[in-house]
Amino acid sequence: MPLDERLENKASVLALAPPSVSVVIVNWNYGRFIRETIQSVRGLTYGNYECIIVDNGSTDDSVEVILDEIRGQRNFSLHKLAENIGQLGGALLALDHVRGELVAFVDADDVLFPRFLECHVQVHIGTENPTAFTSSSCFETNAKGEVLTAGNWPLLRAWRTAEPTMRAADNTARLESFDRSAYSALAERTRYVSSAQRGWNWNPGSANVYRTAMLERVRPKLSGRAVFGGVDTYFCLMLHAITGTNLIDWPLFVRRIHGSNDFAELPCLVDVRPGVWRHADGVAVLKLVTLIDRFDELANIVSIGRFWSILDGAVSADRASALFANRQVHDALIRQYPRLIKVFGEGRVIHELLARMKAEQGLDIVWRGRKGGTYAAAAWRVAAVNFKRRLRRVFKRS
Length: 398
What we know:
The chain is 44% helix and 16% strand. It has helices at 10-14, 31-42, 62-70, 87-95, 116-126, 153-161, 180-188, 212-218, 231-243, 280-293, 295-299, 307-313, 320-324, 327-344, 346-354, 359-370, 375-397; strands at residues 21-27, 49-56, 76-81, 102-107, 111-112, 133-141, 147-149, 163-164, 190-193, 208-211, 245-256. Helix 9 crosses helix 10, helix 14 crosses helix 16 and helix 15 (346-354) crosses helix 17 (375-397). It starts with 9 loop residues before the first helix and ends with a helix.
């Protein structure tokens, strides 16, 4: 990884090594596609990677195809499961085995272009705004390989309003494969989207390369258990709420739309939902419960004042009120209530609860979370905070 020639202490600089990457493929009955997916991983020009394949109890010829393709490949491994534990469940199991600093979760029906990892890694190490994950554009095709779209609309929409993020070519770490010209071309197509910009701002599925350390801090403690839903559905929104995202407007892989995808039923068109978010609410509840239960761990890595905005950013805005009303979310807030009021003060905590749920729901959390005292005392405290909130609204309008 050569740096600019003007840097001093060249011996130590040239000893720097590019980060290791773990490519994770979770497969379930995609025997007709996964051979090409594995071949595309084997064709990556970035050398410092391992590939972990989790087969979710496939009943087709997937395992035979996988074993045939990875035979003799030391950096490939297969974890064969007896039953389907879901894409997210398989990904969480794989995280117990990854060794890379970065992780790419590749859908078993997608195809990576050779420079996929090179470009993502270069952005991770060359940006002025290091983020928890990077996201790239793609080509979308049908099952026969016919091109449907040559980009991703949500990503491009966000990219157009984002800010340049890459450091100058002569003032950063560059992979050996990126001369100044290639680096500058990548830099022109890469931008940073702030965590303040909510919504879905990236490409789904194989588009994203994550920092392992950040995945570990927000993952649910459910390894080996069945968890249905998408990896991106779980991780992207909450990680973006923490660090923002670096977007790469280059097609770096092929995303197949073939009629049996878990989510995508249509190619990505303007203002059209490409599919149904199966298990979306269950995944969203899991995110909120995990963030609340891991409050202290989160407080170690971000400004604690951002906790409530991270909760908001972790879920879709149009579903937030229903999700915060969920019983599992309430139970998590009750468990953490003593810790929350110790950090924020009870008045602030009640204020934040009432901003996200009905007064009676907030009162239930306050009463049960106090673990002592009367219901009347809790009701009086909630009523007092609620009255102050209403007064503020009146004064703001006047």
